[in-house]
Amino acid sequence: MRILWMDWFPDQRQVPIKNGQLDLRDWKAEDGGILLLDGEWEVYPSQWLQGGSRQHATGELEPRLISVPGGWNEALPGEGEKPTPYGFASYRLRILVDPEEATNYSIRVPSVRTSSELYVNGRLLAKSGQVADVKEEYTAKNLPYSTSFAADDNGVIELVIQAANYVDSRNSGIVRSVTFGSEEALARAMKLSVSMQTLGAVIFLMHSVYALILFLLGNREKRLLYFSLLALCITISNVFSNDEKLFHQLFYIGSDWDFRLSNMAFIIGCYALLECTNHRELPYWSRMYPVYTAINLGTAGITMFLAPHQVIMLFPVYFLLAAVAVVITIMAIFKRVIQDIKHHLLLLCSMLVLVHHLLWSLFWRESGLSMIHYPVDLVISMGCLASIWFKGYFNMHANTRELAATLQRVNDHKDQFLANTSHEFKNPLHSMLNMSQSVLKRERPSLQNRSIKELETILAVGRQLTLILNDLIDVMSLREGNPRLQKKTISIQPIVTGVIDMLQLNAEVKSVAILNQIPEDFPYVMADESRVIQIVFNLLHNAVKYTNEGNITIQAFADSGRAYIVIADTGIGMDEDMLKRLFLPYEQASASETMIEGGFGLGLSISKQLIELHQGTLEVSSAPGEGSTFTFSLELAGMNAEEEQSGSNPFEPVGLRWTPIQETAVAGLEEVERMPPAAKQPVVIENSRDRPRLLIVDDDPVNLQVLEAILPPDEYDVTMATSGKEVLAVLDAQEWDLVISDIMMPQMSGYELTRRIRERFTLTELPVLLLTARSQPKDIQSGFLAGANDYVTKPVEAIEIRSRIEALTTIKQTVREQLRLEAAWLQAQIQPHFLFNALSAVTALSDVNLDKMRTLLDEFSHFLRYKFRFQNTDGLVPIEEELSLIRSYVYIESVRFEDRLQVVWELDDCEELKVPFLSIQPLVENAIRHGIMKRTRGGKIHIRIAVRTTHAEITVQDDGVGMSEAKLQQILDRKAENRSGVGLINTDQRLKRHFGAGLRIQSVLGKGTEVTFHVRLGTK
Questions:
Q1: Residues 121-136: pLDDT tens digits?
Q2: How many CB atoms lie within 10 A of CB 217?
Q3: Angstrom distances, CA of residue 31 to CA of 11, 164, 193, 306, 730
Q4: Beta bridge partners of 182
């Protein structure tokens, strides 16, 4: 497999380098090949070829030819002309490429002992550590690095690598092959190598963690502990000193600790490898083992206090200890294999593969080859060892499983029926729903209204069946054992609001009004939010199902430290017989009596069990024809009976108070005292446009604190709000990159907030990310139908929400960048005919009116100066700057067209007004070019600025040719083929981004066009 691995990368090949020069003029870099720059490089001992004022140490020396990779010891004489690894030198290589190829090249320098700088054609592009003439100014750091560049005009690439070493007593200089290729090819190879090494490190770390967990939770088998230690040591050695040195790329700890930790891990790993076997059964070895243990652990301890050159001196000891461990391990394994090869074959394979990996690693390191990281050997070895532990674990519990299977066999038939019913029905049901929805979406324009309604009915019935199947799964979960509840402080009112929003469509179809009469300041309860949602959903869904018309009311009251939620309907009611069996599984009113079919009768049974898990009660009162009333109780959070009876309410909204809390896990805050609702003003956490600007809304301050912990202020510009109304109030205060909203909120749910946002912003102009405690398909579908871009299930995971935030803010930033580039394009764009006509007008005036010619030249230069000013293209400018540009443009056009162009200015006092740069001038230019000048007689243009109380109205009106209805509908469509429409489109989008509203265009064919937009006063 290792040979095949090398064959899978045939493009990584060696090329002969002679006399410090490599001719690649016939080589095609775009083919994706990677070259190993092995061969004769020029080396300048004790000299710097680059670096400005730095002086060489021993005078000018002639260059020598040295083989790369390889040490410079023979080429760098020390005292008495003896070879030495210490000092500094410059490597030089000239590469000749085809000057006709416009290719970006890359070079990868994997290892230069122990510091280096890379110059390409005289420019410093990358370095590792700090090279210097003397040890006092030198910093050791040997990490791989790469850089990209292009050849000069003659196709010459001069590579100069300056190296210095004063700590490593081994061969110094370039000790591993330098790779060269196109930027894309080298980046692809490096990415693959990093990925493979990361994959290997993650696998070994996982083995270490689960082995440690099995040791702690199991029967404390010591070999599991040593196996965990072995996997951890391999992980450390892998990420510290192999190939890409991943750990140092993230957290560089210095060369001293690098030597100490990696070699200590190597020694301890050898000891752990030995302890994973029955080595004590070997004759004579048991006597030597205590001595070996003392030497091994003593060497590992001493290593932590040694300098790098001292660690290198101990390398023979390390190799001796490793060789002893490997030999003894192989002998112990072979002894076990000879006794019973069938049951120890995996152990034999694991050890052979591990030894094979160690030998090849030593060979590759000593030969200096640069290869894509090869993790297969260690993965196979660890996989075999893991299989051994799992096999032993399974054998240990085989009898227990058989006994459990015997005891449960009688109950299996019933449970199996439920499992088959739920799982076997789900797949075809989802297929039917997806296909029906696809047909409805695809064929809606050609279908009759009756067909559309029937398809929508099919989808509604299918979703109801999905809920029933989910109830079946919950029945099995509750029967097999009480599920763990994730209790926390929650508010009932927003949960009820969100559930009503989900069921609103079903209620409206039956003319049923659902009234949420729970006050906003109702005390909080201690419960599992997702389970409470399920309880309320089942009770409300049952009420809607059995209520044909009338009202369903939800009320709540507190008594003796408990909250009581009452759901009353005006439905068909129930008789005494039905009340007795109401909460039994699969029980429901007779379809022949109620004329209502559907469901398995599981919702109430599940709700009762879930409420009892919360130490609550569920009671019902009903009479036929008079409706039903369900009352369930939950524990109040942070309130005692005395406080309640005295009328004091600690949850009264008195303002947002942030209180430090201890968090053990971001996604798992449990039993944290609920803080009071926030004040009406959102809480802004710093403000910087360099970071994504997030607007987060949640009625639970604890959830806001969790998100604050996940989204640090140095990476995100976060504004917190506690209601949807607050969000709508601050939407226009500034530009937002993303809105993150909880679904269950009082007064306005996350669904309603999303719909309100979508009335003003598109999916790309302002993305919305919903937070939901339930990941049911109906919840997710409701969010997407409301206009959300994505959703995250609570409790949120830090990696997940940060990844989704990055994806959504990237969308917003991409749209914003597109607008900025279009604005810059508009700014830089000057039509050639405008230049020619303006210059022609100057020429004509030079013969008849020199003063007017000078004025025209002044206005023309003023116009060009503003057009070519590339500052603040994305922000707001004083209105006077925009008007000054317009006056220059209008004057130039007036000179050209004389009496054909009339300009009327109607300006209120607007000195403090600010507008987007180039927001009015394109409208004026459009009116003149495409409106007035399309007529032979010309026309008149009105430019008006009317200042109101809160805003200014800016209007550009002409009496030109106007536009048809079809053209008017097309004018702001980005798919329009007319490229000049980019100006109006861009202006419209920028106005929406700054002020929430764009251009308003009115036009009548043959009579003219009027374009208006509003600007808020006081906008910065």
A1: 989 999 998 999 888 8
A2: 8
A3: 9, 35, 20, 48, 54
A4: 105
Strands 939-947 and 901-907: parallel
The Cα 132–Cα 164 span in angstroms is 7
Strands 173-174 and 112-113 come out as antiparallel
User: Does the reported pTM lie above 0.90?
Assistant: no
CA separation for the pair 266, 411 (Å, rounded): 53
d(CA 20, CA 364): 25
885 burial via Cβ count (<10 Å: 0-12, 13-18, 19+): buried
Q: Is-contact 507 540, C-beta < 8 A? A: no
- pLDDT value of residue 164: 92
Tell me which DSSP letter residue 721 carries. E
User: Which pLDDT band holds residue 632 (cuts at 50, 70, 90)?
Assistant: very high
pLDDT of residue 794: 77
For CA atoms 404, 408, 413, 416, the dihedral sign is: negative
Task: Say if residues 804 and 769 touch (Cβ distance below 8 Å).
Answer: yes
What's the one-letter identity of residue 757? I
Of the candidates 464, 470, 504, 476, the residue with the CA atom closest to the CA atom of residue 599: 464
Element (H, E) at 866: helix 850-867
Tell me what the mean pLDDT of segment 561-588 comes to.
82
Structure tokens at 751: 């669904």
Specify whether the CB–CB gap between 953 and 927 falls below 8 A.
no
Torsion of CA 175, 177, 183, 187, to 10 degrees: -80
Angle, helices 777-786 vs 492-509, to 10°: value is: 80
Nearest to 432 by CA among 453, 461, 452: 461
Question: Which residues, at least 6 apart from 483, have a Cβ–Cβ distance to it below 8 Å?
Answer: 477, 613
Q: Which residues pair with 67 in a beta bridge?
A: 40
Give backbone dihedrals phi and psi of 794, rounded to 5 degrees, phi first.
-85, 150
Spatial CA neighbour of 747 closest among 497, 532, 492, 525:
497
Token pair recorded at residue 842: 């100057």
The string over 112-122, giving b where at least 16 C-beta atoms fall within 10 Å of a residue's C-beta and e elsewhere, is bbbbbbbbbee
Q: Judge whether 1003 and 968 are in contact, CB under 8 Å.
A: yes
Phi, psi torsion values for 591, nearest 5 degrees = -65, -30
Query: Residue 801's closest CA among 728, 685, 677, 716?
Result: 716
Please tell me what DSSP assigns to residue 744. S
What are the Cα distances from residue 533, in Å, to 244, 538, 644, 776, 871? 49, 9, 25, 11, 53
Measure the N-to-C terminal CA separation of the chain; round to a whole number of Å.
65
Residue 572, C-beta contacts closer than 8 angstroms, at least 6 positions apart: 546, 547, 548, 589, 594, 624, 625, 627
The C-alpha atoms of residue 373 and residue 376 are separated, in whole angstroms, by: 9
**Which amino acid belongs to residue 313?**
M
Estimate the crossing angle of helix 222-241 against helix 376-396, to 10 degrees.
160
Q: Where would I find the H helices in 614-669?
A: 641-645
Where is 544: in which H helix or E strand? helix 529-545
* Residue 167 CB contacts under 8 Å (≥ 6 apart), including other chains: 114, 140, 255, 307, 308, 309
From the list 727, 708, 726, the residue with the least C-alpha distance to 796 is 708
Give Cα 544 distance to the centre of its chain.
40
**Closest residue by Cα to residue 464 from 433, 442, 509, 493:** 433
Cβ atoms within 10 Å of 286's Cβ, excluding its own: 11
Residue 69: asked if its preceding bond is cis (omega within 30°), the reply is yes
What b/e string do you get for 25-41 counting C-beta neighbours within 10 Å, with b at 16 or more?
Answer: eebebeeebbbbbbbbb
- Tens of pLDDT, residue by residue over 367-378, are 656 566 777 777
| Neighbouring C-beta atoms of residue 213, cutoff 10 Å | 12
